[in-house]
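pasting for the record
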Amino acid sequence: MLGWLAAGLLVAVVGVLLPPSTWVAGTLAGIAFSVGAVGARVLVSELPTRWWQVWELPASSWLAGGLTAGGLLLGQLHLTRGLTGAPAVPVLAIMYVVSTIAPAAVGHWLLAEGVRPGWGIPAVAGCALALVAAVRLLGTGREQAAPAPG
Protein backbone atom coordinates (compact mmCIF):
# COMPACT_ATOMS: atom_id res chain seq x y z
CA MET A 1 0.00 0.00 0.00
CA LEU A 2 2.78 2.42 0.88
CA GLY A 3 4.29 1.85 -2.56
CA TRP A 4 1.07 3.05 -4.21
CA LEU A 5 1.05 6.12 -1.98
CA ALA A 6 4.68 6.85 -2.83
CA ALA A 7 3.84 6.53 -6.55
CA GLY A 8 0.96 8.99 -6.18
CA LEU A 9 3.21 11.40 -4.32
CA LEU A 10 5.86 11.07 -7.02
CA VAL A 11 3.27 12.03 -9.65
CA ALA A 12 2.44 15.14 -7.63
CA VAL A 13 6.12 16.02 -7.20
CA VAL A 14 6.84 15.65 -10.93
CA GLY A 15 3.69 17.64 -11.65
CA VAL A 16 5.29 20.72 -10.10
CA LEU A 17 7.30 20.97 -13.32
CA LEU A 18 4.12 21.26 -15.43
CA PRO A 19 2.42 24.60 -16.13
CA PRO A 20 -0.50 25.04 -13.70
CA SER A 21 -3.47 24.82 -16.09
CA THR A 22 -6.98 24.20 -14.76
CA TRP A 23 -7.01 20.47 -15.46
CA VAL A 24 -3.41 19.83 -14.45
CA ALA A 25 -3.59 21.74 -11.17
CA GLY A 26 -6.99 20.33 -10.20
CA THR A 27 -5.99 16.76 -11.01
CA LEU A 28 -2.62 16.96 -9.26
CA ALA A 29 -4.18 18.60 -6.19
CA GLY A 30 -6.76 15.82 -6.09
CA ILE A 31 -4.10 13.12 -6.41
CA ALA A 32 -1.93 14.68 -3.71
CA PHE A 33 -4.86 15.17 -1.31
CA SER A 34 -5.86 11.56 -2.01
CA VAL A 35 -2.37 10.43 -0.97
CA GLY A 36 -2.85 12.42 2.24
CA ALA A 37 -6.28 10.89 2.91
CA VAL A 38 -5.29 7.29 2.24
CA GLY A 39 -1.99 7.77 4.07
CA ALA A 40 -3.85 8.98 7.15
CA ARG A 41 -6.17 5.96 6.91
CA VAL A 42 -3.21 3.58 6.68
CA LEU A 43 -1.37 5.36 9.49
CA VAL A 44 -4.32 5.21 11.88
CA SER A 45 -4.97 1.54 11.08
CA GLU A 46 -1.50 0.45 12.17
CA LEU A 47 -0.94 2.63 15.24
CA PRO A 48 -0.21 0.68 18.43
CA THR A 49 -2.15 1.22 21.63
CA ARG A 50 0.57 3.44 23.07
CA TRP A 51 0.94 5.58 19.94
CA TRP A 52 2.33 8.57 21.84
CA GLN A 53 5.60 6.68 22.35
CA VAL A 54 6.77 7.69 18.91
CA TRP A 55 10.22 6.15 19.37
CA GLU A 56 8.55 2.70 19.34
CA LEU A 57 6.63 3.22 16.09
CA PRO A 58 7.64 0.94 13.23
CA ALA A 59 9.31 2.42 10.16
CA SER A 60 6.14 1.84 8.13
CA SER A 61 4.24 4.22 10.41
CA TRP A 62 6.89 6.90 9.95
CA LEU A 63 6.77 6.37 6.19
CA ALA A 64 2.96 6.58 6.15
CA GLY A 65 3.13 9.77 8.20
CA GLY A 66 5.69 11.31 5.84
CA LEU A 67 3.63 10.37 2.78
CA THR A 68 0.51 11.80 4.41
CA ALA A 69 2.20 15.10 5.19
CA GLY A 70 3.76 15.24 1.73
CA GLY A 71 0.40 14.60 0.10
CA LEU A 72 -1.29 17.38 2.04
CA LEU A 73 1.51 19.87 1.35
CA LEU A 74 1.67 19.07 -2.37
CA GLY A 75 -2.11 19.12 -2.60
CA GLN A 76 -2.16 22.64 -1.21
CA LEU A 77 0.71 23.68 -3.49
CA HIS A 78 -1.07 22.45 -6.63
CA LEU A 79 -4.38 23.92 -5.52
CA THR A 80 -2.77 27.31 -4.87
CA ARG A 81 -0.93 27.24 -8.20
CA GLY A 82 -4.16 26.37 -9.98
CA LEU A 83 -6.15 29.09 -8.28
CA THR A 84 -3.59 31.76 -9.16
CA GLY A 85 -3.74 31.07 -12.88
CA ALA A 86 -7.27 29.82 -13.57
CA PRO A 87 -10.86 30.36 -12.47
CA ALA A 88 -11.50 28.85 -9.05
CA VAL A 89 -14.62 26.83 -9.83
CA PRO A 90 -13.19 24.44 -12.44
CA VAL A 91 -9.96 23.87 -10.50
CA LEU A 92 -11.92 23.06 -7.34
CA ALA A 93 -14.43 20.89 -9.19
CA ILE A 94 -11.69 18.75 -10.73
CA MET A 95 -9.89 18.52 -7.40
CA TYR A 96 -13.09 17.43 -5.60
CA VAL A 97 -13.86 14.74 -8.16
CA VAL A 98 -10.34 13.28 -8.08
CA SER A 99 -10.02 13.50 -4.29
CA THR A 100 -13.39 11.76 -3.89
CA ILE A 101 -13.01 8.97 -6.43
CA ALA A 102 -9.31 8.07 -5.91
CA PRO A 103 -9.43 7.37 -2.14
CA ALA A 104 -12.72 5.51 -2.53
CA ALA A 105 -11.22 3.31 -5.25
CA VAL A 106 -8.06 2.68 -3.21
CA GLY A 107 -10.14 1.81 -0.15
CA HIS A 108 -12.33 -0.57 -2.13
CA TRP A 109 -9.70 -2.35 -4.21
CA LEU A 110 -6.48 -2.12 -2.21
CA LEU A 111 -7.66 -1.92 1.40
CA ALA A 112 -10.61 -4.32 0.94
CA GLU A 113 -13.04 -1.82 2.45
CA GLY A 114 -16.69 -1.95 1.61
CA VAL A 115 -19.96 -0.18 2.12
CA ARG A 116 -22.07 -1.10 5.14
CA PRO A 117 -24.84 -3.57 4.43
CA GLY A 118 -27.90 -1.72 3.14
CA TRP A 119 -25.97 1.43 2.23
CA GLY A 120 -24.85 0.47 -1.30
CA ILE A 121 -27.54 2.42 -3.15
CA PRO A 122 -27.19 5.60 -1.03
CA ALA A 123 -23.38 5.46 -1.44
CA VAL A 124 -23.62 5.16 -5.23
CA ALA A 125 -26.31 7.88 -5.35
CA GLY A 126 -24.20 10.23 -3.21
CA CYS A 127 -21.13 9.67 -5.37
CA ALA A 128 -23.16 10.21 -8.54
CA LEU A 129 -24.66 13.41 -7.12
CA ALA A 130 -21.20 14.71 -6.22
CA LEU A 131 -19.93 13.96 -9.72
CA VAL A 132 -22.93 15.60 -11.41
CA ALA A 133 -22.54 18.69 -9.23
CA ALA A 134 -18.82 18.91 -9.98
CA VAL A 135 -19.42 18.57 -13.72
CA ARG A 136 -22.06 21.32 -13.53
CA LEU A 137 -19.55 23.51 -11.73
CA LEU A 138 -17.05 22.87 -14.51
CA GLY A 139 -19.54 24.33 -16.98
CA THR A 140 -20.30 27.41 -14.90
CA GLY A 141 -16.67 28.23 -14.12
CA ARG A 142 -16.04 29.48 -17.64
CA GLU A 143 -18.82 32.05 -17.66
CA GLN A 144 -17.80 35.63 -17.11
CA ALA A 145 -19.62 37.52 -14.40
CA ALA A 146 -21.63 40.48 -15.62
CA PRO A 147 -20.29 43.83 -14.44
CA ALA A 148 -22.21 45.34 -11.56
CA PRO A 149 -24.53 48.16 -12.54
CA GLY A 150 -22.90 51.35 -11.56
